[in-house]
Amino acid sequence: MRTALRLGLSLAFAAVFAGSAMAAVAMGEQYPLKNASFSFEGPFGTYDRAALQRGFQIYNEVCKNCHSLNRVSFTSLTEPGGPEFSEAEAKAIAASYQIPADPNKQGQLYDDKGSRLTRPGILADRFPPPYPNEEAARATFNGALPPDLSVIVKARDGGPQYIYSLLTGFGQTPPKGFTVVDGKYFNPYFPSWNISMPPPLADGAVTYTDGTKATLDQEARDVVTFLAWAGEPKMEQRKRLGFEVLVFLTVLAGLLYLSYRRVWKDAH
Known about the structure:
mainly alpha, 4 strands, 8 helices, two-stranded antiparallel ribbon, 43% helix, Cytochrome Bc1 Complex, Chain D, domain 2
């Protein structure tokens, strides 16, 4: 009798587990994020300058064709705590982008072919979006809108680990029972598993100017580092100031304690 009861309970639990697993597959529950670590994490973390420059190369050669970076200015590429390109390098980068121009002498914004007048970028400009407006972007991607990457690392749960997991999560076989929607791609680190973005990175997607081997893992780590900086370009200054404040408060607390002992030493 007891054996039959135990068998019945085991079968019931197995059925419940199987049902839960099938429900998870049907809903596309996000996989646990990969345990990637980065130099900028922690109270004393800093940005890797070489990784920032390589990450910018990834954005400039791969990501900018779909994603904007509209809160980042070209001059910030030269500032301490960032990629720290030279001024000449940053000017060349800015000039490689076309920025919507002010009206010409005739007050025109468009040429005789209907194209928007543009000019080469300067250090004071911000990175321009790849599309003139949201409607044009959605029309290109079947209704999907590529997000701006300026604060993407800070805006997503999981931060750098989420972006890294997403970028390296393509190419897996969907579990049995899950359907990949036409025009989308399977990525188990994306909520719902169906993502509109095709795999942006692959081994050898770029040729790094510093000679680093461009593996998928390296590319993902570098662009995550760059995007983390884009979202918090003053992180190193903030951490340094926080440490200095803690040291000051510790010294102040010590001085106050010594003063207290001196003032009240004869009161007891």
